[in-house]
Amino acid sequence: MRLGVCTWIYGEVELAPLARRLKRLGVDGVEIAGDLSRPAREVRQILDDQGLAVLSVTPDDVDILHPDTKLREAGVDYYLRLIDWAADLATPLISCHGATGRIRPVGSYAEERALYVESVQRITRHAHHAGLRVAMELLNRYEAHFLNTVEEGLRFVEEVGLRNAGLLLDAYHMNIEEPDLVNVIWAAGKRLYLFHAADSNRQAPGRGHIDFGAVIRALKGIDYDGDIVFEFMPPGPDPFCVDKGPSTMETLDLFVAEAAVLLRKRWSLP
């Protein structure tokens, strides 16, 4: 089990200084934002120079279930190119979700769900040929209108029907949507491809009321062999804006350091 950080939580910081910063904080790798304007070779070199692994790739905010064909196809095309980019990075995993912040359908739920399945089938098939897995990220109801719970996610990947489709669980979102975090981790089982760690207030583990000891025991219980990625934010309004003022960077550094110590202790890692 490796510990990593989503690069997007640091905002518009250049990758090279961010990689040096994260290396000093003691993490093993990153979940890299899928910026296709930057050559994969350049990204790989920057991270290699700091001994950081690419644990996963997180996408831009595109809409792959919109009834507008042109808009939806643009989203799917982005994902197909993202997979090729991720393959060049030699990462085994990309995450996938609908447009963040769209909390209701444009037409009907039934129509958009069918389009969602179709789009993810195309994406996952392309990922299979590239040797990658696709982790469907489960978001809370205030950020997405589909795939809010593990039960929904498991039904969805079953309908997608490809073996390389699984789930990305995030403790922060789970805290909103799930009655019991431990039971749904057990329910996810081998379909759990990636785990995001943030507390109930979307700050570092240990700063909210989630029992991360119980979460870690559940992950061990299902023999989870993936990574844990930190995706938290400093306190403040607007969940879609990472800049919370002049102390943002220092707060994030503190959160990363705290989370690494806490989770390594819980997991009994050196």
How would the blueprint of this fold be written?
Blueprint: E1 3-6, H1 15-25, E2 29-33, H2 40-49, E3 53-58, H3 69-89, E4 93-96, H4 109-130, E5 133-137, H5 150-160, E6 165-170, H6 171-177, H7 181-188, E7 192-197, H8 212-221, E8 228-230, H9 248-267
Parallel strand pairs: 1-2, 1-8, 2-3, 4-5, 5-6, 6-7, 7-8
Helix pairs in contact: 2-3, 3-4, 4-5, 7-8
Describe the structure.
The protein is an alpha/beta fold and 270 residues long. The protein contains 9 helices and 8 strands. Helix 2 (40-49) packs across helix 3 and helix 7 (181-188) runs parallel beside helix 8 (212-221). Helix content is 44%, strand content 14%. The chain has a single domain, classed as Alpha-Beta Barrel (TIM Barrel).
Summarize this, please?
By secondary structure, the chain is of the alpha/beta class. The protein has one domain (3-267): Divalent-metal-dependent TIM barrel enzymes (TIM Barrel, Alpha-Beta Barrel). Helices cover 44% and strands 14% of the residues.
